[in-house]
Write a structure and sequence with these properties.
Elements (H helix, E strand, L loop, with lengths): L4 E6 L6 H13 L2 E7 L10 H11 L6 E6 L3 H7 L4 E6 L2 H17 L4 E6 L9 H9 L10 H10 L4
Parallel strand pairs: 1-2, 1-4, 2-3, 4-5
Protein name: Phosphopantetheine adenylyltransferase
GO molecular function: pantetheine-phosphate adenylyltransferase activity
InterPro entries: Cyt_trans-like (IPR004821), PPAT (IPR001980), Rossmann-like_a/b/a_fold (IPR014729)
């Protein structure tokens, strides 16, 4: 029997409780889930790719079927390399759908054998993004309900807060 392999891609700068929820739910469905930490050249990340990978490793250590890796090329090439049959993406709101549909359509042109699965975020995470978390943390706002404690601590260190 073939293992069901999926990729959950993202920049995860930083990983939020919303991301973790999507990863956990994917881990319940697929045998192996690669969390692909993408190095997006159009973004200016707060955390290095090594820091993001370390944070994700820490907060998913209880999930034995998760593999955390980095990628800087095309997502579809990475998925093919991992023999994944699925890419899993989280959707927060209707506004995410249009962008995700474009990416999914392009991926289908590149490889029609790799499906994209969308998981709707839980209501409590529907507003949550890494950008919002960074903005709130930058000004000393409380983000403890939005990210794991290890991420909250890393944000405070980045912004030199006590």
């Amino acid at each position: 029997m073939t293992e069901k392999i999926a990729v959950v891609p993202g920049s995860f700068d930083p990983i939020t409780n919303g991301h973790i929820d999507i990863i956990r739910r994917a881990a319940d469905v697929f045998d192996i889930v690669y969390v692909a930490v993408l190095n997006n050249s159009s973004k200016n990340p707060l955390f290095s790719i090594e820091e993001r990978t370390a944070l994700i490793t820490e907060v998913t250590k209880d999930l034995p079927n998760i593999r955390i890796e980095t990628s800087s090329g095309l997502l579809i090439d990475y998925a093919r390399e991992k023999k994944a049959k699925a890419i899993v993406r989280g959707l927060r709101a209707v506004s995410d759908f249009e962008y995700e549909m474009q990416i999914t359509s392009m991926n289908r042109v590149l490889d029609e054998n790799i499906e994209t699965f969308f998981i709707m975020s839980k209501n409590q995470y529907s507003f949550l993004s890494s950008s919002i978390v960074k903005e709130v943390a930058k000004y000393g706002g409380k983000v403890g309900e939005l990210v794991p404690s290890v991420v909250e601590k890393a944000l405070k260190e980045k912004f030199n807060q006590k």
